[in-house]
Amino acid sequence: MERNQMHRQVSVMRQSLFDQGYLDEQFIQLEELQDDANPNFVEEVVTLYYRDSSRLILSIDQALERNPLDFNKLDTYMHQFKGSSTSIGAKKVKAECTQFREYCKAGNGEGCMRTFQQVKKEYTILKRKLEAYFQQARQVGPSETACRPRN
Amino acid sequence: MTPAIEGMAPAVESSEGSNKMSKGYQYPSLKKKLRGLVVDNAELCRIVEKGIMGLCGVETQAVETGEAAVELIASGATFDLIVIDRFLPSMTGPQTARKMREMGVESKIIGLFASYFEGDEEEFVAAGVDDFKEKPLSPNWLVPILRELDN
């Protein structure tokens, strides 16, 4: 009984991440890649994302402190960051990244700085939500979040 | 069959053998054994892109630089589909595509952007790619390409 309740809780958490626009269908792609051979694939990929992105964020923060700003460098960093964010389905983060790139292209330093605060904010919110989700999902069992049928 | 997870369409195993359908993605049943190459500097992107290509029936290798891709081809490896990220550490995506064409590679080459603005594709197109796409690498656009290659 209790297990069913926990299972339902995980599903509700998961669904709300999509409904509230934090994740897009790319996250479902990750779930498609999770199976018995890779039972923790999604969490591993997301962990990798947060590990690698933290370095990029630091680089962008440092680059934003320069005077004058090197928009090409900023753009390159952000391109990488957006690529990773897109790959895990981080919808809101991705949207802020696009905005950042628009300011870069326009040479708008203030716009870049403001938007990057938003990027970091969304990034952190998503991190907390995903951590909570994975924690719950782990209690239910990793195979519950795989969506491909087992052969 | 996997029990339906609330909020998600149940994964359905089609009666057509290796066709798998889940959440609207129809993974193709390919006649040929297609080989793919992903060139992306980000580990996360390599993992996810390689995985998705695999789900779509493409035996895929992933390398992190243009140089590594060129070396692989120089050693005799052949691919049906090559996907190259725009930003690579030293040899850029377009430079890599150009080099491949110079080496006589006739495979389908797709230039991939983490973030695309109109006009970004010029370098890639000039280098001889067949098409360019914005990430994520999605079955939505990948599968039609694979079906074409399969014929």
UniProtKB/TrEMBL annotation, chain A:
Modification type Phosphohistidine: residues: H79
Tagged with keyword Cell division: no
The reply to whether Nucleus figures as a keyword in the UniProt entry is no
**One short Pfam family name for this protein?**
Hpt
Q: Where is the HPt domain?
A: 38-133
Biological process (GO) annotations held by this record are:
cytokinin-activated signaling pathway; phosphorelay signal transduction system
Swiss-Prot/TrEMBL keywords: Cytokinin signaling pathway, Phosphoprotein, Two-component regulatory system
**Described function:** Functions as a two-component phosphorelay mediators between cytokinin sensor histidine kinases and response regulators (B-type ARRs). Plays an important role in propagating cytokinin signal transduction.
How are the domains described in the entry?
Answer: Histidine-containing phosphotransfer domain (HPt) contains an active histidine that mediates the phosphotransfer.
Query: What name goes with this protein?
Result: Histidine-containing phosphotransfer protein
* Record organism: Carpinus fangiana
Source species taxonomy: Eukaryota, Viridiplantae, Streptophyta, Embryophyta, Tracheophyta
From TrEMBL, chain B:
Q: Give the keywords, sorted.
A: Phosphoprotein
Q: Does the keyword tRNA-binding apply?
A: no
Could you tell me which residues belong to the region Disordered?
A: 1-23
Q: Which Pfam families match?
A: Response_reg (PF00072)
Modification 4-aspartylphosphate, positions? D85
- CDD domains named in the record: REC_hyHK_CKI1_RcsC-like
| UniProt xrefs under SMART domains | REC
Outline the extent of the Response regulatory domain.
35-150
Spell out the InterPro entries in the cross-references. Answer: CheY-like_superfamily, Sig_transdc_resp-reg_receiver, ST_Response_Regulator
A single BP term in Gene Ontology: phosphorelay signal transduction system
Q: What is this protein called?
A: Response regulatory domain-containing protein
User: Which species is listed as the source?
Assistant: Carpinus fangiana
